[in-house]
């Protein structure tokens, strides 16, 4: 039985201007994870991901690596109640 989860993710390091959001969107979609990702004014990246627990965990594992030009220093994850509010994974502006 699959367990549906929601994770609020904050990624810090060199994660803006390195295609982090676009690559996270591709990875999330390939895993069947829904939600969104956006840049924060302080240089971090914020994301909310919903879906199968294993798929969301794989996305978090990817978040620690990021795309080739990224230099991830930290990934904070706060687990929340699944809401099922997204149909896709998109970039918020």
Provide a descriptive summary of the structure in words.
- The chain is an alpha+beta fold.
- Helices cover 27% and strands 41% of the residues.
- The protein is built from 2 helices and 5 strands.
- The chain has a 5-stranded mixed sheet with strand order 4-1-3-2-5, with helices on one face.
- Strand 2 and strand 3 form a beta hairpin.
- Helix 1 packs antiparallel against helix 2.
- The radius of gyration is 12 Å and the shape is globular.
- The N and C termini lie far apart (35 Å).
- The relative contact order is 0.35.
- The mean pLDDT is 97.
Topology:
Layout: E1 4-14, H1 20-31, E2 34-39, E3 45-52, H2 53-65, E4 71-80, E5 89-91
Parallel strand pairs: 2-5
Antiparallel strand pairs: 1-3, 1-4, 2-3
Helix pairs in contact: 1-2
Globular, elongated, flat, extended or rod-shaped: what is the shape? globular
Helix content: 25-40%
What is the total tally of β strands?
Answer: 5
Major β-sheet profile: 5 strands, mixed
Structural class: alpha+beta
Q: Proportion of β residues?
A: 35-45%
Order of helices and strands: EHEEHEE
- Please state how the strands of the largest beta sheet are arranged side by side: 4-1-3-2-5
Q: Outline the low-pLDDT stretches.
A: none
Distance between the termini: 35 Å
Radius of gyration: 12 Å
Count of helix runs: 2
Mean pLDDT: 97
Briefly, what is this?
This protein is α+β, with helices and mostly antiparallel strands.
List keywords for this structure.
93 residues; alpha+beta; five-stranded mixed beta sheet; 2 helices; 5 strands; 41% strand
